[in-house]
Amino acid sequence: MEKELTYKEIRKNKEINTLLERGNEVLGSLGYTDHSAAHAAKVADTAGKILEKLGYSGREAELSRIAGYMHDIGNSVNRCDHAHTGAILGWQILRELGMSLKEAAVVMSAVGNHDEKTGTAVDPISAALILADKTDVRRNRVRNKAKENFDIHDRVNYAVTDAALKINMDKKVIALNLQIDTKICSMYEYFEIFLGRMMMCRGAAEVLGATFKLTANGSKVL
User: Fold this and answer.
1) Is the separation of the CB atoms in 22 and 85 below 8 Å?
2) At residue 1, does pLDDT exceed 80?
3) Cα 108 to Cα 182: distance, rounded to the nearest angstrom
4) Buried b vs exposed e over 182-200: b needs ≥16 C-beta within 10 Å?
5) 12 burial type by CB count under 10 A (0-12 exposed, 13-18 middle, 19+ buried)
6) Residue of 179, 193, 117, 115 lying closest to 150 (CA atoms)
7) How far is CA 23 from CA 1, 19, 40, 86, 95, in A?
8) Mean pLDDT of 71-77
9) Residue 46 binned pLDDT confidence (cut-offs 50, 70, 90)
């Protein structure tokens, strides 16, 4: 029997949380930044707020939260193609929980399109997920405690001392304002890693009828 699943139910789901936990363990062993349930919850919350502030329906915002929380479950299989495996895992889980075919398909597409190597925003749900995920750049996601062993990804994330995502409803602008400690990471290194993600955010904002702007240390970059 089909039901209208809520984000609250998804966040408490043991199967989903087990996959998130395992995926984070796998990435930890490979030296990746934090991809725990805390990251998933932050992405979910941000995605929902983006759609709410831009005037989308409450159900669309809820689906974006569900997709946001589930988007990294594919890391439990392998980092490679994690968006695609996560989408298939998510479809199966959501259908078993009673989500309708249409809504499960929307969430599946969002999860399957969130990675910048193979994905793109295809609708408001996927666009909000992309923006929320790619703008979650912060120092406390770095798990490597030895600064002398930082790779470029560690340096880039650790160098971000403040990141604020702001949505201007009237001007339809989604702005990411970053403060970067250039003693830890140069601006060149930051864009070497994140330019592709920021361009993906620009495309996602366009799907939402908005403009994406990036400011780093007070200077407009994108």
Assistant:
1) no
2) no
3) 38
4) eebbeeebbbeebeeebeb
5) exposed
6) 193
7) 30, 6, 12, 10, 21
8) 98
9) very high
**8-27 residue pLDDT tens:** 999 999 999 999 999 999 99
Pull the structure tokens for residue 16. Answer: 């989903």
Task: Locate the DSSP E strands across the chain.
Answer: 160-168, 173-180, 211-216, 219-220
* CA–CA gap between residue 204 and residue 113 (Å, rounded): 11
> The dihedral of CA 167, 171, 173, 177: what is its sign?
negative
User: Rounded to whole angstroms, how far apart are CA atoms 165 and 17?
Assistant: 26
Cβ-count burial 142-180 (b if 16+ within 10 Å, e if not): bbbeeeeebeebbbbbbbbeebebebeeeeeebbbebeb
- Amino acid, single-letter form, for residue 72: D
pLDDT digits (tens, 9 = 90+) for 157-176: 899 999 999 999 999 999 99
